[in-house]
Design goal:
Blueprint lengths: L2 H21 L22 E6 L3 E6 L4 E5 L14 E6 L6 E6 L4 E5 L4 E5 L15 E6 L6 E6 L3 E6 L4 E5 L14 E6 L5
Antiparallel strand pairs: 1-2, 2-3, 3-4, 5-6, 6-7, 7-8, 9-10, 10-11, 11-12
Length: about 200
């Protein structure tokens, strides 16, 4: 192997490791002079990730959500409209067991299986009973439903309740809410065909 190729093969894995630590909200620790590994690493440990169009969110081991990326519709959930190049905590002090990310809106389930969404609310995709206003921090999905799973898409959001019944909200131009209509809904409606 030529010396220049050997150097490149060493530098590339270090650059990838450095980028991973930086994206995880940490810093690359300086090596000790004696060559021993650094004594500590600073960063977040994620248990789940969900990616939207220009943003990513994750749940850390304590259950708090962190998001980064584009934030023009409030999809980072930190109460601002500022893009974030590294993870920031989602506001509201909620803890989540699951996240789902749509095109411009994330949603999460808390430990009580209640759904919360934030970001772009065109056509009611956040499910809080309103449409049009973007939400820069989590809002509760209306209807008092408890969910076992969430799925977020470009223009609508769906969730399963314990009995396996799906409910959806948001855009319904193509019947994607499954309620035998093409009427968009700002609160979850039950998909027909399920008791």
């Amino acid at each position: 192997m030529r010396p220049s190729l050997r150097l490149a093969s060493i530098a590339l894995p270090f650059a990838v490791l450095s980028a991973r630590l930086e994206v995880a909200g940490g810093q690359v620790p300086s090596p000790k002079p004696d060559g021993a590994p650094p004594s500590r690493q600073i960063g977040l440990t994620f248990t789940q990730l969900a990616g939207g169009n220009a943003h990513t969110c994750g749940v850390v081991s304590a259950g708090h959500a962190h998001c980064w990326g584009g934030n023009d519709r409030g999809q980072i959930g930190d109460g601002s409209g500022t893009d974030r190049v590294s993870p920031v905590a989602v506001g509201g002090g909620l803890t989540f067991t699951q996240l789902a990310a749509g095109r411009l809106h994330p949603c999460g389930l808390d430990s009580g299986r209640r759904a919360y969404c934030w970001g772009d609310n065109q056509i009611g995709r956040l499910g809080d009973g309103t449409a049009g206003s973007h939400r820069s921090s989590p809002v509760a999905v209306s209807g008092g439903l408890t969910f076992t799973q969430l799925a977020a898409s470009g223009w609508h959001t769906c969730g399963l309740v314990r009995a396996g019944r799906p409910y959806c909200c948001g855009n319904d131009d193509n019947g994607e809410l499954g309620d035998r209509s093409t009427t968009s809904r700002s609160s979850p409606v039950r998909v027909v065909g399920f008791p």
